[in-house]
Amino acid sequence: MNFDFSDDQKSLQDETHRFLRDRCDLSVARIVLDDQQQAYSESVWQEMVELGWAGIAIPEQYGGIGLGYLELCVMAEEMGRFLAPVPFSSTLYLFCEALLNGASETLKQEILPQVATGKLVGTMAFAEGFGFPGRDRIGVRFEGGKLYGDKWPVADAMIADAAVVLAVNEDNEPCLCFLDLDQEPVHRRQLESVDPSRGQGGLEFFGAEAESLTAFEGGSGNSGWQLFQRVLNSAAVLFAFEQIGGADACLAAATEFARERYAFGRPVGSFQAIKHKLADVYVGNQLARSNAYYGAWALATGAEELPLAASVARVSAIQAYEYAASENIQVHGGMGFTWEADCHLYLRRSRSLALLIGSSGLWKKQVTRELERKFV
Amino acid sequence: MDFDDTPEEAEFRLEVRSWLAEQASAYSLKSFDDLSFEQQLSLGREFQARKAERGYAKITWTQELGGMGGTPMQAVIYEQEEEKYNFPTVFFAISLGMPIPVMRRFATEAQQQRYLKPALRGEEVWCQLFSEPSAGSDLGGIRLKAVRDGDDWVLNGQKVWTSYAHISDFGIIVTRTDPTVAKHKGMTFFFVDMKSPGIEVRQIKQAAGGGEFCEVFFSDVRVPDGNRLGEINAGWSVAIATLMEERFAVTDAAGGGAQLEDTMHFLRRELGEGDGGLDDPCVREKIADWYIAESGINNFYARLLTGLSQGQLPGPEAALSKIVIARKLQAQSADIMDFCGPAGAIYPDFQVSRANDYRIAWLEAAGYRIAGGTDEILKNTIAERVLGLPGDIRVDKDIPFEELK
User: Fold this and answer.
1) What is the CATH number of the domain that holds B146?
2) The whole model's pTM is what?
3) Do A315 and B288 touch (CB under 8 A)?
4) DSSP B124
């Protein structure tokens, strides 16, 4: 039994942790939060690029460092812990995942080196207003090599240089299309969200030049839809690590406060009402961490149970982070609900991560669907 | 990152597997319901003797002591493999889980020679006489009195929730020897012969009908001072050592309730496409919830085993498994009953086995949440020993025991 990260992976995590602690503590997320004009921390992102992080999981043949999913997982955990306001997730978990799994060799040769060197920030656009896109609920059209329609919300829409967009083609089949966002028929608009430290926006296409990603070979049936599902499953695992990093930070903050804050002549952490609450948070965090490891294992080994493992990891991580973030405020009392205290930063992030690639209800459906396939 | 055995572990697993397969036809029964209790116990003793012969009764102990000099990981591998069958091992779980390791640690050389091996072979069964009517989670509240009389101690009082006391030959017991000092400072630990004059064992019928829990009454029971474990009035530290004893049992995330796969087949078969069936969205959401918790426990356990495989013993964080499993067992069993409608309350005629039945599990779970550490005590353990939160303010700490309410 070796259900853990390797020593090398753990030292990469330590290295990531030290960098973020020194260069990207919560004051950085706060600057982005307070200044509506700032969509991300450009300087921190530049430093990350210089460290090679943008290309950490991009194969060497495309100019990256060529590490694997497990390395990406441990880094994601630290990104989540420090609420890093950078386009790491949009570019690496979504955009690169789509290209690596579905793009032609030529496109990969052209685009991925630009990601690795930080010349290009990417994202994936799939939502179209309220609800989550099902196969038959995609309004954006890909016709004659051009995209038409409106996508919102899109993570990092204001700063991305390129995107992968979920659309339907002339045969009414779902497809993922790559496009350069820096062209006339693309209109961007900024959107205000509950979590301003991770910018979101809308992308509207008026016949923008795009290219369909058709090289995906996994799964069966429509390859565009399969590719989209594959990217969501990878992202679910990677976001789960961000979520458990955030949940851990909430538990640590609440525990420290409960030890130091005195009321009724004793530390509030000596009251069982607080102890049991924090024990429950700990239990939730450990279950989520264990399920996230399961997702990481499935992702890294290319296991057939990835759709099951990813959905379990995602729901578990959503539950743990949201619970930890809300109880962190509760333990802090009135102080926890001030703008000045950091508690609301985690609460905001826990909610935005719970929504971005589909909420827990949607992913629970996937859990049961996969169990049905496995058992019944 | 993988779930694989090391080559050595894999080799041991194969060895255990083939041995268990040889034993299965004689000792692993689909159901024990057709056998009398005595027949079950005697079958259990036979199997236990065979286990002990191989050193499997206490894998981590040396061969001289009756074990096989194995690692904690090998002990887990054995359990994982044994659990795939239905061997009658339940009678010896407490006996070998706590009393016998405590004897190994605190009894004299001669006593160990006398008692350890017969227990490993299942010839003698041991119980653990801890809880009392006035001392459950607060073990320091025990009142059963032991008074020195020459070379003996005279015991008077009552113990309760003593599993399998009615079939036990010996027991370890914690007693009150000095009520004039603070509660944790006046306790002394002994082992007793359960056949001693003055001991009366009564089985307690539990809410779910089971009767393996007993109450044990002591009236002027004489115990030689030679049976004392640890120093006089140092019983609390022996008790703590007992409770900390390596108890890294194999975790069944279903907690002895219905397995998810079976439940899904059952719902498909009995409820078809209607309400409560597998297509009902309420049912589907519950199934996801159960599986997420189950997967969390299984993968948490895999992480603990990884540590164990590398030589680290699990710490107090292991307490979380029981909290999750017991609560989940109770809720999940009730959910399945709900899906069945009014028929969910009706017991079937148990032709095959009562094991894994959701109706049985639903009631048993209420006890499972209390046994071996209540949910609340386990949460305190996590809060204090894992998270480092301060202990509760104790109002009974420095007051002589006799002055406490």
Assistant:
1) 2.40.110.10
2) 0.94
3) yes
4) S
